[in-house]
Write a structure and sequence with these properties.
Layout: H1 2-20, E1 33-37, E2 46-51, H2 57-73, E3 81-85, E4 88-92, E5 96-100, E6 107-113, E7 119-120
Antiparallel strand pairs: 1-2, 1-3, 3-4, 4-5, 5-6, 6-7
Length: 134
């Protein structure tokens, strides 16, 4: 009897920890692109609508990049932007655009910056051939 009580208590504790580990979820509303503002003093982040009727996550990333550049043009200093689209997170930084399923989890590169700062599909960026020096 005691062993089953210990096992049941351990299982309940594991389920409680698993529920807390879920973190913040991206809104899943179809076609809506969000910018995310971090919460103050540990509060949950705030999701602000940037654009509606976006048919692909890449279009949402482009809207977020436009917003980032507009704010920089107005004197802003924030170089990184986080957004969300249909349940996924979008991260824009100096290297390019990354997608992820969570704010803290792994991310994969979707668009890379070219030499002049534009965004392109990583495989489409041509590197000049390396010429050995003599």
């Amino acid at each position: 009897m005691t062993r089953s009580l210990v096992l049941l208590t351990a299982l309940a504790g594991a389920m409680t920890l698993g529920a807390c580990a879920g973190g913040v979820e991206a809104p899943a509303e179809r076609g809506v692109c969000y910018a995310i503002e971090p919460g103050e003093n540990g509060a949950d982040p705030k999701f602000n609508v940037v654009a509606r009727d976006q048919t692909q996550i890449e279009f949402c990333a482009a809207r977020l990049e436009e917003m980032r550049l507009r704010f920089l043009g107005l004197g802003g200093t924030r170089r990184e932007v986080t957004g969300a689209y249909q349940g996924q997170f979008i991260f824009i930084d100096r290297a390019g655009v990354w997608f992820g399923k969570s704010l803290e989890g792994p991310r994969f590169m979707a668009l890379a910056r070219t030499g002049d700062g534009r965004l392109a599909v990583p495989g489409a960026i041509e590197q000049p051939p390396v010429v050995p020096q003599q």
